[in-house]
């Protein structure tokens, strides 16, 4: 029978909200969100029949955004889709699990280093009138520094995926992240929004 489905496909990019075109938003939603939904719906009859497992690749970025809101948006949407699906599939014996990796940019190469020059050249005239090259360079440097801190041990995420597929009692969520990343998620999930905004604004200012 058909036992397990892992929705792992995803793309990432950098840019503040107004820097990205509507076409880019549509592309990200199509790959990161609708792609997983299409695949799930295609295999759902078999997964129900054989009481299988469905695993989705989310991210701790579902809880907050630091220069890649377009990626955060799709991961937050996947989380809500999974929450609904997990409850609906329980009566069929199908388990739905979410993997929430931290920063594994150096392992996956999902996000190459960003070029301030390329970003500037792609900005509309309206955005160029608001921002300047120095600001774009600062944001690019900040984001590239985050990428450089990514873990190279991608096996940790693979192990979580394997456990989600094979464990007799899989977790609903597997957060595979560094302690400071888990702490940031904790702040974002449990503290008032004003606290979260203060923490993230401080990080961006640095």
Automatic annotation (TrEMBL):
Listed transmembrane segments: 54-71, 183-204
Extract the InterPro entries matched here. Answer: NAD(P)-bd_dom_sf, SDR_fam
Keywords linked to the UniProt accession: Membrane, Transmembrane, Transmembrane helix
Q: Name one Pfam family in it.
A: adh_short
Q: Which PANTHER family does the UniProt record give?
A: D-BETA-HYDROXYBUTYRATE DEHYDROGENASE, MITOCHONDRIAL, SHORT-CHAIN DEHYDROGENASE/REDUCTASE FAMILY 9C
Family statement:
Belongs to the short-chain dehydrogenases/reductases (SDR) family.
Q: What is this protein called?
A: BDH protein
């Amino acid at each position: 029978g058909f036992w397990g489905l892992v929705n792992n496909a995803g793309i990432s990019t950098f840019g503040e909200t107004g820097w990205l075109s509507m076409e880019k938003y549509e592309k990200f939603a199509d790959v990161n969100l609708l792609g997983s939904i299409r695949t799930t719906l295609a295999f759902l009859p078999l997964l129900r029949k054989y009481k299988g497992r469905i695993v989705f690749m989310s991210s701790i970025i579902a809880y907050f955004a630091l220069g890649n809101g377009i990626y955060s948006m799709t991961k937050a949407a996947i989380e809500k889709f999974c929450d609904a699906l997990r409850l609906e599939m329980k009566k069929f014996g199908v388990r739905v699990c979410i993997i929430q990796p931290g920063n594994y940019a150096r392992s996956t190469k999902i996000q190459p280093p960003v070029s301030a020059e390329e970003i500037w050249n792609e900005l509309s005239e309206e955005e160029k009138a608001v921002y300047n090259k120095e600001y774009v360079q600062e944001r690019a440097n900040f984001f590239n520094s985050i990428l450089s801190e990514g873990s190279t041990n991608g096996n940790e995420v693979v192990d979580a995926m394997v456990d989600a597929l094979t464990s007799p009692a899989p977790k609903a969520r597997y957060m595979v992240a560094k302690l400071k990343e888990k702490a940031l998620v904790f702040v974002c999930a449990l503290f008032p929004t004003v606290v979260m905004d203060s923490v993230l604004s401080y990080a961006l200012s640095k």
